[in-house]
Amino acid sequence: MRNFEKNIKNKAYAFQLDPMPDSFDKVMDALEKKKKRRFIFWLWILIPGFLIAGGGLLINQMYSSANAQVQAQSLKASHLLTVLFKENKQGLVHEDKYALTETTHTTTPENKMNNRPTSETQSLASKNNQPVFIKESSNQSAEFNNRNEKSFVQIEEKTNMTQVPSREKWTPIIFSNPYFVTFPTHSSNPVYSRTQIPFTKSTLPVIKSNSHQTGRWSIGIYSDLGVSKNIFINNKDSAGFGYTNARQLTDKFLFSYSAGIQFRYSPVKWLAIETGIGFTHYESNQLLSNAGFSWTTSGNNNDPDTALTLSSVDPQSAFGPYEYQNVYDYISIPIKVYYQKKWNWTGIEAGGGIIFDLPVNTHSYVADENSNMSYLRHEVKTSRLNVFGIQASANIHLVFHIKKFGLFAGPTFKYRMNSMFDKNYITRQHNYFIGGEMGLRYHF
Amino acid sequence: MPIITQELVHRCKRNERAAMAELFKILAPKLKGICYRYCGNAFDAEDLLQETFIIVFTKIGSFKEQGSFEGWTRRIAVNTCINWLKKNKLLHQMYELQPKHDAEEDQEEDLAELNTQELVQHIAALPDGYRTILNLFAIEGYSHKEIGEQLGINESTSRSQYTRAKKALQHLFMKEKKP
Lengths: 444, 179
Description:
The structure holds 2 protein chains of 2 kinds. Chain A has helices at residues 3-14, 23-78, 109-112, 243-250, 310-313; strands at residues 84-86, 121-127, 130-136, 141-147, 150-156, 161-166, 169-171, 179-184, 193-196, 217-233, 254-265, 271-288, 322-342, 346-363, 367-370, 373-376, 389-402, 405-416, 428-443.
């Protein structure tokens, strides 16, 4: 190594600088915050994961008995049914419809007693309380029994699962393989029943459902988790030395959340209108300094209302910079409109709207800026804040339907359209939020 | 001079605050010195020191204990500083600034007369690009190839910038010596 490098290396290695007295505490604080953020991140990942996995498991365990009941109710309700079989793996509807359907055919079970129709297609329904039997498929067999002085039609299905549409409305239904549907043939008030044999591992379910069958109204809970940041606007701060510019440079994304209850009404199947009430918490960081140069202050003023107040915030850090957390808590009332699309047991919703915010708990430093000077105010007076805020919101939800429940999760974006300060401030402060929303709703 | 023992590192891995404070006390002055050499001012050096320790305490579990712990923390400090310079686009000066005195001859003997404080002050006064390359090559012992990879520049650029940085440093010294 040449002398030059050797020389400066030895000296540079010996060079030391003492850290600030509170340096270690700041490191520990930052580590704590980092841990908290990591915890929230994993919480946000894991909670929907567990909910989705749990929901899937629940569906897997509940569908057979639950849908058997739905099937029985459907039969009683309409007597006009078409049963379509689906291949489990491919999810394709059989073209040779094995049907329980309305028909003009008037053949009765009595006429067919002791027969075992197997070669024709068939349909079966009840009309005017009289069983109607037509065979339209070779995919199953039917037999008639005469037990205890009553006649029964018993059909054994050979397919894995079935979906039953009742006119335009689809009823969630899963049939096992095999199972028996028993229809009393001599009854003025027929009650249909079905005996089900448990699923085998090879017969996984498919559910087709429609929210309109579980009601147009719903109530639910929601939670938004994410980060928020502020945008500052001040036309007079073009020099870039004032409060607005300093806040733009130093403000960070901070954790924010909101939670509440929601009410939904769906006038048509593809549209939903939503409102509710909730609590919203935003934060913003603000660097305060009394030093010669400053991030958020550029001058001194003895006016008690506008004087620099760093020492009153933290007497130990009189020379700053001191990071102050502004807090904005609101009661929020959203009004949103969603387009919704539904498949078997999943769905998607996209929409947005506005959220009205009423401040309930606020701690914030604000600044006036006049003649290129910025002054911090000690506390925000009620009159300094807007009495309400308006946010624009956009959401996309992936929805999982479990019986009458809908589990939803997806990204959300919110932007505060009016300033968080009142019109007496030159500086405009708008907040925006990026995060995710999840929740659970119950359909009536 | 307190020593960083294996036991101390283990205690830090177990998140014992007292051990972390002890480690901070031992290493902070040295690491802040490094940060100062890279950023050139005490205010940013303090920030970079804190950022370095956040990384050290976060990643301490991955320290394999096969090499020097202090060396490991030094590398973290250097990388933190370089990232900071890149993030703030301060290395752009590397391509724009020219030394005012290209023709000056090496004054290595004169530089030897400087004490530690004076030398570091002179290094801090260099433009960011020169200061970075001088630190990496002359003090940390990186090769020009490694510097090129680290900063995303050619090896030859690193070499020429280093020569200029050296001359700029000598010029600063001469300027002080002959006001």
